[in-house]
Amino acid sequence: MISEPSLPHPGLIVLFGSGETSPTGRKIFEGIMQKLPRSPRLVLLETPAGFELNSSRVIGRVGEFFSHRLQNHAPCVEIIPARKRGTAYSPDNPQVVSPLLDADLIFMGPGSPSYAIRQLRDSLAWQYLIARHRLGAVLALASAATVAISACALPVYEIYKVGEELHWIDGLDLFSLYGLRLVFVPHWNNQEGGAELDTSRCFMGQMRFMQLMEMLPDDMTIIGLDEKTALIMDPANCECHVRGLGKVTLIHTGHKHAPDSMSASQNPASMLRGTDEDLVIIANQRHGHFHQYEDEDTFPMDEIGQFHAFHPETNLPSEIWQKALQSANDKRGASIPIPPLEVLSMVEARQVARQRGEWAQADSIRLQVEKLGWKIVDTRDGPQIEKVS
Predict the structure, then answer these.
(1) Residues 6 or more apart from 149 whose CB is under 8 A from it?
(2) C-beta of residue 206 within 8 angstroms of C-beta of residue 200
(3) Which of 370, 343, 12 is nearest to 351 (CA)?
(4) Is the pTM of this model over 0.70?
């Protein structure tokens, strides 16, 4: 039997708490770049800072970081000035945003989360970004962009700078198709306020953040990202990795966990030593629990929630998906066969079974996939799906 080229799996999602251009960020990106083709195409989306008069300079500094600090990888860096709808530099302008379809890595970062959400929701830029990521591009998000992709996003400037009442806004909800309801909070351990002002929890402070938590539905998982720390989510292998100087904090309820996972009220005092007291209070209020992970820690994605697969074309206009496929085919020099949703779901289920050591179940799923005319090839970068004939 001859195998056709396999469908690329979704790319990594790299979420920074801050410090994406610091020496720590450089080290994290070095690891990411090693997984990309030689001379990767890096596309930087200017949108989150598009309201600022110097937005080109804001994103330009990130471009200089990639070009000069990661020059050993000979990256091709391109900035997309998709600043504001209704202008020549609109995120709906095909001429402006088309480079997204050829990206190996897409970066978004500093600016305003609420502005980014208004400009990107249902935009052509967002659809291109999603389509390209589903075909293998890495998403690297920092600061405002990390907040913006949440299911419920924190309007940081409106509360911290303007003094609006505590509230959440609807985010871009990147992980909804994976079945995950996630809220990301960068700058989790921020200390800019010193002894006089608590600026942790993305400048909200612990007390205000506890009030904000009471406003969230119980099914939300909150992910706090310390500064100069990244959470690397790998949908292909159903794994998460922590890199950097700080911690990643998960607060959640309502789904099955490993036997050794306990609620805050069950944790002995020795396990909480060095933990912020507000985490214990919040977890108890929500009848849930929390986890904290540090540099080099790895944990399964179902530690966050019940992760599941979806067909790559789901929730994308057909013409957008076809453009993304054509661009991917041009890069590969071959046609990409698209597995049905049933096969994709089975592949994800097999990955979960393998992580849990349920080898008989994993083998059974592999045989079912083969009966449907597809073959699973396990690689270091995750399972590849090949059409057999």
Answers:
(1) 141, 171, 172, 173, 174, 175, 184
(2) yes
(3) 343
(4) yes
Residue 175's closest CA among 213, 154, 149?
149
Residues ≥6 apart with Cβ < 8 Å to 231: 14, 15, 223, 225, 240, 241, 242, 248
Q: What is the pLDDT of residue 275?
A: 55
205: left (phi over 0), alpha (psi -120 to 50) or beta: left
Question: In whole angstroms, how far apart are CA 264 and each of 6, 220, 272, 384?
Answer: 44, 17, 9, 39
Determine contact, residues 183/159, Cβ cutoff 8 Å.
no
164 CA to centre of own chain:
28
CA 204, CA 201: separation in Å to the nearest integer? 5
Convert the pLDDT of each residue in 235-249 to its tens digit: 888 899 999 999 999
* DSSP secondary structure string for all residues of 139-173: EEEETHHHHHTSSEE--HHHHHTS-PPS--EE---
**How far apart, in whole angstroms, are the C-alpha atoms of residue 202 and residue 155?**
10
- Is 291:223 a contact under the CB 8 Å cutoff? no
- pLDDT for residue 334: 67
